[in-house]
Amino acid sequence: MPRTKGEKDTNVNLFEYRPVRPFIQIPEKVLMYILQLTPSSFAKVYLYLYNMSYGLGYDHTVTHTSVREIASNLNISIGRTQNAITYFKKIKAIEKIESRAVIGTKYKVNVPEYSSSFNNWYFTAPNKVRYIMMKEKLLTSEKLVTSKIKRYKSVKKSLELGLFDKSEE
After folding, report:
1. Of 16, 56, 93, 135, which has the highest C-beta tally within 10 A?
2. Geometric angle at alpha carbon 135, from 160 and 154, rounded to 5°
3. Which burial class, exposed, middle or buried, applies to 143 when counting CB atoms under 10 A from its CB (0-12, 13-18, 19+)?
4. Which residue has the higher pLDDT, 92 or 149?
5. DSSP code of residue 106
6. Taking 80 as the threshold, does the pLDDT of residue 157 lie above it?
7. Spatial separation of the C-alpha atoms in residues 134 and 143, rounded to whole Å
8. What pLDDT does residue 123 have?
9. Do residue 145 and residue 64 come from a single domain?
10. Which residues contact 110 (CB under 8 A, 6 or more apart)?
11. What's the 3-state SS for 7-25?
12. Cα separation of 61 and 86, whole Å?
């Protein structure tokens, strides 16, 4: 039945507001660390590197990137970007894997973990934290792709079975 002017749609399809483009899920601990970072431009740099690595299913940036490229993409100064990268190297949030003149650098991106005994944050490899693990196994790019395919098939099957009908009359 079509809506008349002024009526609100009360039957919202469960999947109607899901992202249609690639998106990244950020674990709560990563987000909690990022939110308390000052200056905020440091948070932007870490999230950018996080997206260039974990967003693509790896623990390192897939492509080479440079300070100028990061600064340009995030609309922050080159000096501020360099300061952020130096800071993250110092606290072991990122580690340089490979550097090439003119092309840029690849970074391994570590994830934050909170130590309640020392009351501070530290960075560690993703295979040492539970929030990056899936079914008691390390999340790797191959497993990530397999997981996404299984999830897609499950959602498709649920829709075919009519488990999420628009109207429940």
Report:
1. 93
2. 5
3. middle
4. 92
5. E
6. no
7. 9
8. 93
9. no
10. 59, 92, 93, 94, 95, 123, 124, 125, 126
11. CCCCCCCCCCCCCCCCCCC
12. 17
Distance CA 70, CA 81 (A): 7
Q: What is the reported pLDDT for 25?
A: 78
Structural domain that includes position 101: 28-132
Q: Is pLDDT of 69 > 70?
A: yes
What's the confidence (pLDDT) of residue 169?
A: 47
The residues pairing with 121 across neighbouring beta strands, listed in sequence order, are 114
**Are residue 94 and residue 143 in the same domain, yes or no?**
no
Are residues 51 and 109 both part of a single domain?
Answer: yes
Dump the DSSP string for 46-99.
Answer: HHHHHHHHGGGTSSB-SS-B-HHHHHHHHT--HHHHHHHHHHHHHTTSEEEEEE
What's the pTM? 0.67
Statement: residue 34 has pLDDT above 80: yes
